[in-house]
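Allow me, if you will, to draw on your knowledge of protein folds for a short while. I have a record of one protein: its chain in single-letter code and its fold written as discrete structure tokens. I remain grateful for any guidance, and I place the record below:
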Amino acid sequence: MDITDLELMHQYAEDDSPQNLERRQRTLESWISAGFLTPEETQEAGRVLKILRERDRGFPRAA
């Protein structure tokens, strides 16, 4: 079963683990900057990025 970009973004937003948080942020940022998301997907990606960035501030950085 293939998952849509929107479904993947929702999974990113719901994932509370700090592992790969930076990778998920970079992925969404690259999708937005590449311009291949629909306007709805771009809006959702922005919302999810905000969630991920807020969550990132709550996790201590690895040394």
Notes: Residues 39-58 form the longest helix (20 residues). The mean pLDDT is 81. Residues 5 and 57 are 25 Å apart (CA to CA). The radius of gyration is 12 Å.
